[in-house]
Amino acid sequence: MGDPPEPVIDLGDAGDPDRTVEAQREIDYEMPADRLDEQQPQCPFGQAGSCCDICYMGPCRVSDDDQYGDDRGVCGATPGTVVSRNLYREIGAGVSSHSHHARESVELLAEIAEEEAGDFEIKDEQKLRSIAEDIGLEADGDVNEVAKAVADAAMDDFGPGGETLNWLERMPDSQREVLDEQGLLPLSSVDQQAARALAQTHKGNDSDTGHILKSALEAGVADGYAGLTMATDLQDVIFGTPSPTDATAHLGVLEEDQVNLAVHGHSPQLSEMVVKAAEELEDEAREVGADGINLVGICCTGNELAERHGIPMAAHSLQSELAVTTGALDAMVVDIQCIWPGISDLIECHHTRLITTVDYVRMEEATHIPFDEETAMEDAKKLVREAIEGYQDRKRRQKYEVNIPDRTQEAMVGFSDSAILGVLESIDPENPAQPIVDAIQAGQLRGIVGIVGCPNPKMREANMTEKLIENLLAADVLPVVTGCIGHIMAQGGYLDPDRVDELAGDGLQELLYTLGDAAGLDGPLPPVLHMGSCVDNSRIGNVIRAISEGSGIPVQDLPVAASAPELIAEKAVSIGTWALALGLPLHTAPALRIEASEVVTETLTEDLKDITGGYLIQDGTPDGAAEQLIDALDERRAPLVDADIEAEAGTAD
Ligand code: BF8
């Protein structure tokens, strides 16, 4: 690490003169940004959330604002009904995706406990025991028995279960009490909660805007705990809890003379086994003339592999097609979520082998090789061998020149909640929350913002994420990032400790040096902390919980906020809803699709403050968003600083 990187240029920009992009144009394949242009003007009714297409009397356009439609649908639905119903459906899709993801880890843990999981094992026994304790189970004793009890409790959260989700025990106490008082705790089965989103919003069911929004919030809470937190918890138990490690980012990590194999998606079950298989088959690659196997990660799988193994982070999801256009990628193995269908078209013109592995995720033009936990190593080897054959194809009949961009950037990744709390604990072993509270009261730290989510071609050209984060850093706000934002940050050099002096305000600089020292680094922590994949947003929730419970300050009084500055996915909307339920100010860009309803807009931007403490900020500019987020942090910070001044005055008396 060291030299500042070149100015951030995004390979997804239509105007980018990058050679790889030129290669893409040669084959007359459109870039995401080109396709976005083709879609202009995009439907204003859809963007305002006014379009109701859930029955065949429509589609209707229903809005409080004349420009987006009439004031009633054919069935008499109001703008509030239509907008809240649309939003709830998005959240329902998000909670379905995340809880399904979590469930796979639950099933795997159950198999490990029964010693039926072949090549998988428990890597972090301590974390297993601490989860068991946290959710009220017996944490001592035989490790397989504890694992079985934890897996059973997790599986309960998918079935009829008890009164509420077991995993809600992982929520900060103060906020769980708030939600309980407000009647906002989710159903005891996350599967039911996801199905409820569809049943409740079917034509002719719930039309009460307030009630629909309440259910939507509950679904967000279910996502936060029986989706994100459960997934991260069990993944850490099975694959190990990340700690700070170095990784290299950007498409330049591809190697012309090696077998290049990209794993793309979200599930560590698959990618972790591919790591082992690639190590075992290194000789087979050499036998066909390659210098070795170069395993790289794309999107959240990229984050998962980087944070646990330092494996190169080749691309965020918006750059996944570009990885193929380099002509150097021999196989792309995908599992679940965020896999762009455009890749299918693209591989018709390239030697790259596109392989799907999960039954419910298929792609035209892809080969399907099922990945099964019971035959995991065997399956993973098949995948690696596909890549080795792909390499041979490339060397035999490369139609397009290999064109790997000359761009790489070093990054420090892997700041799991345990790693961060460990650093704080080394400063104050009695109370790890105290160093953060002290830094807030001393004016070193203005607040923390979790910056999460995706790279959206609508916002990429403006470098929305980078500029927002630069504004926050300069104002002594610490950004912690996950998901594809992690890739954007890694590629832009924001995860490089050497850039602290350049990017962070004076107070934050001091804090990062103190923390770096406590972490035993030879310098500061990086200006932006990479906390993992999108399910690892739960790690941000865990740090907030530890600070809140350790300091006795309720979550909604802490100067902490969330932002999805380039939101794309329904999953990101449900994560944002969880943040609102957790009591955080939440910024999104593009704006959530609620403009057509004054009631929904007012509820989420204002009224919610008195219900959960959270509220929505919508701003599509990095300066405006930063200003609003900083104002939100200052509003929460002021009473803490005043309390400190009063305490000091009291001591002086
Ligand atoms: O779950 S950040 S584009 S890869 S949705 Fe998808 Fe968005 Fe990337 Fe990970 Ni998250």
From TrEMBL:
An annotated Gene Ontology molecular function: hydroxylamine reductase activity
Family matches, as InterPro entries: CO_DH_a-bundle, CODH, HCP/CODH, Prismane-like_a/b-sand, Prismane-like_sf
Chemical reaction(s) catalysed: CO + 2 oxidized [2Fe-2S]-[ferredoxin] + H2O = 2 reduced [2Fe-2S]-[ferredoxin] + CO2 + 2 H(+)
Keyword Mitochondrion: no
Region (Disordered), start-end ranges: 1-21
Binding positions for [4Fe-4S] cluster 2 per the UniProt entry: 52, 55, 60, 75
Residues that coordinate or bind [Ni-4Fe-4S] cluster: 266, 300, 338, 454, 484, 534
The enzyme's E.C. designation: 1.2.7.4
Source organism, top-level taxon: Archaea
Keywords annotated in UniProt: 4Fe-4S, Iron, Iron-sulfur, Metal-binding, Nickel, Oxidoreductase
Keyword Iron-sulfur belongs to the record: yes
Cofactor: [4Fe-4S] cluster; [Ni-4Fe-5S] cluster
GO biological process: generation of precursor metabolites and energy; response to hydrogen peroxide
Pfam families named in the record: Prismane
EC class of the enzyme, as a word: oxidoreductase
Gene3D superfamilies: 1.20.1270.30, 3.40.50.2030
Residues the record lists as binding [4Fe-4S] cluster 1: 43, 51
Family designation: Belongs to the Ni-containing carbon monoxide dehydrogenase family.
PANTHER family assigned to the protein according to its UniProt record, in alphabetical order: CARBON MONOXIDE DEHYDROGENASE, HYDROXYLAMINE REDUCTASE
Assembly mode: Homodimer.
Function: CODH oxidizes carbon monoxide coupled, via CooF, to the reduction of a hydrogen cation by a hydrogenase (possibly CooH).
Name of the protein in question: Carbon monoxide dehydrogenase
Organism: Halapricum desulfuricans
Classification lineage: Archaea, Methanobacteriati, Methanobacteriota, Stenosarchaea group, Halobacteria
